[in-house]
## 1
Amino acid sequence: MAFTIAVDGPAASGKGTISKALARQLGYAHLDTGLLYRAVGRQVLDGADPLAAAQALTAEALDDPSLRTPEVAQAASKVAVLGDVRAALVDFQRAFARRDGGAVLDGRDIGTVICPEAEAKLYVIASAEVRAERRFKELTGKGIETTLETVLADVRARDERDMGRAEAPLKPAEDAVHIDTTAMDIEAAIAAALGAVRARQEART
Ligand SMILES: Nc1ncnc2c1ncn2[C@@H]1O[C@H](COP(=O)(O)OP(=O)(O)OP(=O)(O)O)[C@@H](O)[C@H]1O
Ligand SMILES: Nc1ccn([C@@H]2O[C@H](COP(=O)(O)O)[C@@H](O)[C@H]2O)c(=O)n1
């Protein structure tokens, strides 16, 4: 039986960390939908046409570790404003969401556009400053040279683009459970998410 968990939220809010943990604990499959936009953005940086790149995307392209850089994140949020690119990526996400055995998808429009019928929806937020600190620590830990100011500016630019675009803007679904991780450690954030999902599962039995 399909059970879909939609996890949305702004950059570096912790939704990927939460989604991976939910998938592991529940035995569900996980899709980081940001990787789809990053893979298209990566190809556009290399000179490709955005729509052609989206239409030709394969699951294997999502494993590329170079998708995790700040430059690719910015390129992803720029191609993500294009309605035809978004439309080309819908079927892949919906097929993943309805697979047997359960699925967790994280992104920006999962609960609102991709899976409005998802059985559980979470909206994960944290202050821009805390998100930037976490991402700064992550990037410098990987040996990527940057400054906290640069990362904060990147987070704010992506927030503005993701929330302000006409197509599928980032916003909470009306029935999403909000989780503010600003003052939560990872374990507390995962526990809050798991509690919310369990409540939805119990409500269905
Ligand atoms: N509650 C938390 N406390 C401290 N650090 C956290 C917390 N949640 C996540 N992190 C760390 O913050 C960073 C960003 O988290 P994560 O990748 O899960 O965010 P995201 O919302 O999926 O980001 P993006 O949209 O950019 O992919 C990671 O390094 C992660 O380990
Ligand atoms: N469902 C989604 C997922 C992502 N995006 C865009 O891609 C950018 C990168 O996503 P990350 O989750 O890896 O940070 C993001 O800034 C969005 O512009 C999207 O539009 N919809």
Note: The two ends are 13 Å apart (CA to CA).
## 2
Amino acid sequence: MLNLPMDLRFDELMIKTKFDFLMQLSHLQLLGFVVAVLVIYVLRSRKPKGCLDPENFKEFKLVKKTQLTHNASKFRFALPKPTSIFGLPVGQHIVCRGQDREGKEVVRPYTPITLDSDLGFFELVVKMYPNGRMSHHFREMKEGEYLPVKGPKGRFKYKVGQGRAFGMIAGGSGITPMFQLTRGILENPKDKTNMNLIYANVTVNDILLKSVSPSFERMTFSLKTNQEDTLSAPLLVEELDNFAVKFPNRFKVYYVLSQPPETWNGGIGHVSKEMIQTHCPAPASDIQILRCGPPGMNKAMATHLEALGYDSKMQFEF
Ligand SMILES: Cc1cc2nc3c(=O)[nH]c(=O)nc-3n(C[C@H](O)[C@H](O)[C@H](O)COP(=O)(O)OP(=O)(O)OC[C@H]3O[C@@H](n4cnc5c(N)ncnc54)[C@H](O)[C@@H]3O)c2cc1C
């Protein structure tokens, strides 16, 4: 029993009671109390565990399939709980398993366009090729079915402030790692990295994630920004153009089409050395040019970048 003086106010009494309580514990009890407090502190400060396993495939349910273009769709997969975190670091990808037309197993890498700030789900944008093996699996996949996924995977490790700027050269579905990284950077108020994207496609209808048509679901996420980039409205996740409008000093996009429409004010043809010179940061030790596209384009870009004086440390191919 504690001996408490009767002339104390209630708040004083509470403090004294707690203090006396600690004083009256044995050394062993005190040690137990300190350990319990430490365990609670460590558990609370630990990063929440993601849903991915780098070694074993885990299955995720397809909850929504949305057609974006004539050959690309967006797939939303549910995580186990609405509050679950996927656990994919910015710049990394996952590996998906499916079956080709002949029923043979096929495994391919994909980069989600969502981040760990999107709780309870992740999304893929997939371009499907007529004879593509995994393309067949995604084309056939129905809502309610499960996709085996493992990860995170990838050589690209992003750290806030690792450089001043990124130049990004993407072709077709190669936009997904650029989009994910751009979102990760713009969503982090501590990150001041600038980005210049060159995005190449065949026709205007092949451009992915450019802007949201009224029929597409509008998904928003809240964004804390610095003063320079004050947002008047929530950012729409699926708009490259919106990034450019909301962050004009941080993100610029230059579209290139090999078969442009009659009126077109972007680039025409293939991505050239001159386009890179005009639209990407000049060679420097604090910049990097990232590229992701079909093999032929990646090879051509590597040749251009070398000719322009970008050394191997200034280049990265996803
Ligand atoms: C790190 C990484 C991340 C990726 N993320 C995505 C993503 O988010 N979304 C996405 O759609 N794809 C992504 N890809 C590409 C994806 O992994 C597959 O290569 C693509 O889906 C085609 O697979 P497939 O089995 O259908 O085609 P395959 O059976 O492998 O190929 C069949 C034919 O399709 C054509 N083809 C295949 N791949 C390409 C290509 N990339 N460009 C042009 N033609 C091609 C070729 O003509 C080829 O002969 C990523 C690739 C990598 C390396």
Note: Residues 90 and 181 are 6 Å apart (CA to CA).
